[in-house]
């Protein structure tokens, strides 16, 4: 079930178009409340959930928005993921690729979400692909490592990638 939750969260973030998934709104809260937590596998999200009462209003609002999107993606794609992608190992977009390969058989709302996620990914790749290759070569994909690399080299990003990454 944790695997399904991670898949739904990743799909929701892609469908929402948020490259940073609450990064700005929750950054101070993560540093204050979860500084010793190793990123990856949903550990930071779990830490924030455990400290929900202590979160800033901005972080609470951002997480609530992501939770709504996760529920929407879950409602739309849970059955399709279980039917077509149950044996797919999660990570690096494998489940999204599986859903895309079965797009014609998916429920209409799930098809729409998969299409939206593919469009956001294509937009990101077009805007930031050269920067990823130049500035983050050798960084393993997954768990937000490439995004963190790009964010850490923000002053060196192309104008298109900077615009997509936001302020």
Automatic annotation (TrEMBL):
InterPro entries, per database record: Cys-rich_GLG1_repeat, GLG1
Keyword flag Magnesium: no
Keywords: Signal
Record's signal peptide: 1-21
Protein name: Cysteine rich repeat domain protein
